[in-house]
Amino acid sequence: MQGPISRFRTAVAATAANLATAASRATGRGAGGMIGGLVAAAIDPNIMASLGGGRPTVLVTGTNGKSTTTRMLAGAVGAKHKVATNDGGDNMDAGIISALLAGKDADAIVLECDELHVPKVAERLQPTAFVLLNLTRDQLDRVGEINSIERALRAAVMAHPDATVVANCDDVLITSIAYDHPNAVWVSAGAGWTGDSVTNPRSGGHVVRSSVTHEGEADWYAVEPLPDGREFRRPTPTYKVEGETLVGPEGVAKLELKLPGRANRGNAAQAIAAAVEAFDVPLDAAVRAAADVDNVAGRYTTVHLGDHDVHLLLAKNPAGWQEALSMVDRDADGVVIAVNAQQGDGEDVSWLWDVKFEDFGDTHVVAAGERATDLAVRLTYGGIGHDTVHDPIAAIRACPPGRVEVLANYTALLNLRRALTKEEDYRA
User: Fold this and answer.
1) Whole-prediction pTM value?
2) Is the pLDDT assigned to residue 15 strictly greater than 90?
3) Residue 70: which residues within 8 A CB-CB, separation 6 or more?
4) Active-site residue 348, yes or no?
């Protein structure tokens, strides 16, 4: 319980944060999703815990799919509760504090959380549930070695034995995080990228994958046992995605999503499982909420620039790029691939050589962004015919009239969306 001095400090921090957020929006410097939280934390270092207030909280984390899963889960939980959430994607401490300030009257909290921030955020908010999506290489200059992240997340999750842990059993590293938790709910959400989980993260030795088991499901297992002698193997899922269908303990539900791709069906499955298991949301309501999501912070949307219909896709790391490439319409009139290397993207672009770029056939491909030249070298070695136009808007205009697929990493997509709104022939 807060004393009078603590309550006064929290009140001052909240007032200052609201003023900073309003100023940021009024001056056009940003949406205010970060600045308010930064100001509040500087005044009251304990404000996150104070704002949490013991409300039921779920943290969604993983390398890819956090924003999409959080949006789906917040919608599902919203069927029963008033929800506070960081739907703008600001998933570090400052963004989380801003979301809690904006949702101070909510009775449930659904937050996406950056992998590195989960331990401290969980310590402050004491979550009732975690949703663990996937774990792969991401921004090597910031995040670092992937097995160290697995160990930190494992410790954070195990520190909350009463929480519900919704975990993707097809991902070896995620399974390792939740393997010993007493309240794990296993979801077969898929694992499109397996290059970072070829060995047992706990005791070494190869991980063997088989496409089908005697039960008709994909399987994996470690050839070496865990230090205590147990086998480390894919758990049996409680929920699983079969094509466009979700199979769970309450029956079968059709996943009629507006968002494309196998990965988003997996995101929906975990959001639905978390809503049902942690918040007692009826299955049909959770499925409807997932189906209602049609874009996430401008991703997956189609906008119009002159005589081009521009479909926007975000990709941030090898796993994300591989999924995004599978969503590209090969019959499009043009493809623009935009790569930056700013804060938020990671300065190391060596991941370009890990991505299996597809043959786009006769589709017009344009390399764009601040690191267009690095991308062009990679496309050249991949045997992909392309042009290089650093300005993404000019790259779109360089494509033939019609539908243009744009794949961009974080700041490239953010900057492109801002630039598009300034073009005279732009229409949302």
Assistant:
1) 0.87
2) no
3) 60, 85, 86, 87, 110, 111, 112, 271
4) yes
